[in-house]
Amino acid sequence: MSVTDTPVAPDAVLVRRPARVRVLWLLVLAAVLIAVMTASLAFGSRAVAWSDVWAALGGAEATLEEAAVAKRIPRALLAVVVGAALGLSGAVMQGVTRNPLADPGILGVNMGASLAVVTGIAHFGLASASGYIWTAMLGAALTAAFVYSVGSLGRGGPTPLKLALAGAAISAALASLVSAVVLPRNDISDTFRLWQIGGVGGASYDQLGSVLPFLGAGFVICLAAARALNSLALGDDLAAGLGERVALVRAGAALGAVVLCGASTAVAGPIVFVGLVVPHTCRLLVGVDHRWLLPFSALGGATLLTAADVLGRIVARPAEVDVGILTAIIGAPFFIHIVRRQKVRSL
């Protein structure tokens, strides 16, 4: 039997990093996340002393500063879970499509979820938190399928650039439709602003409680697909030769990514580029093994979004810049860099 006829374990051909290096980066990233979460509690329209932060974490709300910190706790937690969901979903989308440009924002998935929620609120009386989430997931799934279908047309199938162009065009069209729904409804325009820009302001424990089961399910589905995504990275034919049910694996992983995108958009709006920037950066740190890349992308997404939220509160104090604007400012140059790379055809 020739070498080409012998099945190769999917992990054997992956770019590896020493385990100690991966563990070291894991500890560094966890420490940075803890630091930015602490900063998220300390900084805002009213800066508070570190002693007030520790007191509020212990449940104290006796002073105005401690009460301010207590109100920031759910915001920090929402930024963490939404950032983790977006980072993980981006890594999974890139693995499923073998497309280095895949990202929930670039492919229009988040904007499709936003349009579904806005339409439901404006025309169908959508009001419950669970209704937002189910509607957003439906909109995300339909948009993902439509973008993939459009990007698959023509010669060469769904190439990275075709998918990115299709996603950008469809995302722009969906954003226009969101504006068309919002503009005539001045009575609820403030409510709709979240689904136009994206942000984590006004977070509450009720929001967290409603979205965590969905995000938890999405995390489990995506992380369970890590080894299968390593096989898909070798190509569909070789993955099938290794015993993977390619269509089932791709559909299952995509479902997990859509659940994460839809649920996070339902509570925070269409935050873009987190799912693009974070997986690419994490590959530089831990390699391309999805068993490491996926959890690192979740941790990196949580760190990036929380840091962007803190920065947005500092640069415009006492007002704030929505986190969706800052991630767009950070991610747009990164996207241009990836497009200009010579080896952008596939991962």
UniProtKB/TrEMBL annotation:
It is a multi-pass membrane protein. SUPFAM superfamilies: ABC transporter involved in vitamin B12 uptake, BtuC (SSF81345). It is found in: Cell membrane. This is Iron ABC transporter permease. Pfam families: FecCD. The chain crosses the membrane at residues 23-43, 73-93, 105-126, 132-151, 163-183, 214-235, 247-272, 292-311, 323-340. The keyword Transferase does not apply. Keywords: Cell membrane, Membrane, Transmembrane, Transmembrane helix, Transport. InterPro entries: ABC_BtuC-like (IPR037294), ABC_transptr_permease_BtuC (IPR000522). Belongs to the binding-protein-dependent transport system permease family. FecCD subfamily.
